[in-house]
Amino acid sequence: MSLFRSRPTLVSHTSRQLLITYRHHPSSQKMSFRDYSNLETPASCYVDFCLVPVGTGNVSVANEVADVQRVLKASGLKYTMHSAGTTVEGSWDEVMKVVGQAHAIVHQGGVKRVQTSMRVGTRTDKKQTAEDKVKRVEGILSGDQSPA
Amino acid sequence: MSLFRSRPTLVSHTSRQLLITYRHHPSSQKMSFRDYSNLETPASCYVDFCLVPVGTGNVSVANEVADVQRVLKASGLKYTMHSAGTTVEGSWDEVMKVVGQAHAIVHQGGVKRVQTSMRVGTRTDKKQTAEDKVKRVEGILSGDQSPA
Amino acid sequence: MSLFRSRPTLVSHTSRQLLITYRHHPSSQKMSFRDYSNLETPASCYVDFCLVPVGTGNVSVANEVADVQRVLKASGLKYTMHSAGTTVEGSWDEVMKVVGQAHAIVHQGGVKRVQTSMRVGTRTDKKQTAEDKVKRVEGILSGDQSPA
Amino acid sequence: MSLFRSRPTLVSHTSRQLLITYRHHPSSQKMSFRDYSNLETPASCYVDFCLVPVGTGNVSVANEVADVQRVLKASGLKYTMHSAGTTVEGSWDEVMKVVGQAHAIVHQGGVKRVQTSMRVGTRTDKKQTAEDKVKRVEGILSGDQSPA
């Protein structure tokens, strides 16, 4: 990740030139492929996900959601459950692993099919926590409350 | 699976006690952690994702989507682009890695923030490809078209 | 809606028979089409949505999110903002109208492209508020906290 | 739009004061409500949605998806089914109505709970069809395929 972090605009220009070049030179196509395999997943992300067990014959999904919360708790990652999903913060690989384990624990419970809707956000300009995002908007809206 | 099924409420209570206990006894912490850390992510899944670069000052996202398609091609995974996203099939870890690399390549292109919407499906009853799913529905609908 | 409510399983069976019939009788195809236009949208739903302005040249989306919160407030509908979106409750038509107005207000602010990710849930077995859903899961998890 | 742009911070403060004031003065409530209630939903949008019936006891969702396709066909809107959802194009109100009817038809079939994941896109700079979007990206990628 530090590699990726240590080469911002300049190298992204370089990699674009490579991509253009390889259109004319198969050899550089290999280079661009090697480049992709070296691509590291983001060092931090947030994922908001809503997992739905399919084919359970039970309209309630609360037991499966509770199982998922236990997996999240055991992961040691920062997470928050809300009424329409759960938000998890961590490195891309950590967060995606725990969501995959959430599918696994629900399958272990006997559910044959699991469908999840996810929102994933990454940014390179700064670290921003879930709280930061809400506070930022509430700060703007707080002006609406100010006396005339 | 059957094991898990054969120990319903009672043992789930027990495991809850472990979760409590571990706050005081590292030994049982290991137990509960081992339980979840042994959970493997699904061996196969499909992911349909739509990646949006944020803050680019460019209304078009076609260049970023093209970069993502190049990363997908290099991955060797089976994928299909449609007008509202791209569907990828493979193991959970493979697919999540390539989507993370898709974020990385877009960041390398100079985009500071990337937001992706994903649908993820896993099932344990059978393998079903993207084509299978469409054919299944078209098969049902084909009856609607049949001559009187 | 009361109509739809007042004809549960029986008429859904009837409509299935119509669908089958029309495969053989074009006349009943018309019926099934009329049937669809009579279909009312759900009387209640929840929508959790995350709106992203595209092409603004600004990495922060807080101002747009604040505009959206003002539209939601003016709607009189019940809503809650969290770090990864906002959950709104109401009739299908009311909720979808306000989300459309959220797109409109952001466009009015000069954003040429808006992309939103939504989760929508409807159920006919009972009314369940956002709070109910969280409490239900927390109730299950509270057992995890109980003394051994 | 230009109007809105020509009244930046100052008037947005004023409208904030109106929002406060209206809590005490129904008259100004009308004003602020008129402001938002006059907001029209977008004249065109695309929606890509994936509907999941919950609690059916049937792992397959093909019958419900087929019902949804019939509702879409009857709507007269332009739509395309793919393996991970269906993309529909039309005005905001038309598209949201048909997705609501999709929930309704699945409920009529006896499904008590329906969960849908949606991506919604609107833009004011130009009309772009689903085909346009795919062609645009394929055009960029076609350069990658060109012989050396």
UniProtKB/TrEMBL annotation, chains A, B, C, D:
Compositional bias annotation for Basic and acidic residues: 122-138
Record-linked Gene3D superfamilies: 3.30.70.930
Record domain Thiamine-binding protein: where: 47-138
Positions of region (Disordered): 122-148
GO cellular component assignments: cytosol
Domain of life: Eukaryota
NCBIfam families noted in UniProt: MTH1187 family thiamine-binding protein (TIGR00106)
Family: Belongs to the UPF0045 family.
Name by which UniProt lists this protein: Thiamine-binding protein domain-containing protein
